[in-house]
Amino acid sequence: MVSSRPTREQLAAAAGTTIPDVLAPGLDVLFCGINPGLYSGATGYHFARPGNRFWPALHASGFTPRRFDPSEQDELLALGLGITNVVNRATARADELTADELRAGGVRLAEKAAEYRPRWLAVVGITAYRTAFGRPAATVGRQSHSLGETRVWVLPNPSGLNAHWTPTTLAEAFAHLRHAVYSE
């Protein structure tokens, strides 16, 4: 793992690497990114790139008592939260992934849901979700299907490149999920 900001060489070397899931049986929510970016691949932490709004949205929505640093990702387990990805390999951009990789990732997510039985799977990235699960008309929010006993929710991609969602509206989308998780 890289303890400070990765160098250009370390970022380049991170292409194709994988990072471990933050996962345990019986979580309340398993958050699922599209795939690790190079920054995450270089550091070994999910949603690690400065400017990614996952950690601020997680806190602003009430899932965490304070804003966690990506290096504190394992502390999520004590809160009933975890992190995985649709596709495991790190890339510079999500559009480098193939539709076949995304569909295979959907199969792996269904297997993880069956094995670990999280109450909710929250996929952060509507386009990746649509491809991975063959649901081209899906929208952000609660989905009509489940993975066994695991209910499915789609959140907007928290990447800073996703300008359609402001930090405030992103936190609101996460808060809608939080309300569903803890009111049912």
TrEMBL record:
InterPro entries named in the record: MUG/TDG, Uracil-DNA_glycosylase-like, Uracil-DNA_glycosylase-like_sf
Name the record gives this protein: G/U mismatch-specific DNA glycosylase
Pfam families: UDG (PF03167)
Underlying gene: mug
Enzyme class: hydrolase
Gene3D superfamilies: Uracil-DNA glycosylase-like domain
Biological source species: Amycolatopsis thermalba
Keyword line: DNA damage, DNA repair, Glycosidase, Hydrolase
One example GO MF annotation: hydrolase activity, acting on glycosyl bonds
NCBIfam families: PRK10201.1 (NF007570)
SMART domains listed in its UniProt record: UDG, UreE_C
